[in-house]
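Researcher: Predict the fold of Phosphoglycerate mutase.
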Amino acid sequence: MKHILLFALLASFMACTRSASIYIVRHGERANDSDTTSLSAAGHERAFALAKRLEGLHLDTIFVTPYLRTQQTAAKVASLNALPFTQYPAAPTSVLINRLANLDDRRVLVVGHSNTILEIARGLGTKPSMTKIEHSDYDNLLFIRIRHTLFGKRVHLYEETYGKPTP
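Model: Structure tokens for Phosphoglycerate mutase follow.
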């Protein structure tokens, strides 16, 4: 009887645990410094490296801003997952943060900008080790896991880099 009760308690605990996995990256290298620019050859290589890094994760949603470079960065990932893009405004980041904070059992990719990705990560309750993304820095991947349990919300940040395009 004890084993049945213990199993029932464990099963109910597992049923109450929800989690979201959020991958946040900056778009790949730009062709030039204009706001409407596309990716450079190195940026397309970076986008391919991102797709390789996220391959097999079975994403549910891909968030991109209205800028072409974020969409190009996410294109290969979208193709591999047979997903359309979900656009979000580049500013204010609170719109996206509120949406991400309420995800349940979802895996999403967010492609943003140097001045937004750390703000998004902080808005979700993490403390990235970087204080700023430099203009020439394109290789950061922030992975955030948000777990909702009977004991409250737990947020974990994992930071890594990906891709090394050829010069």
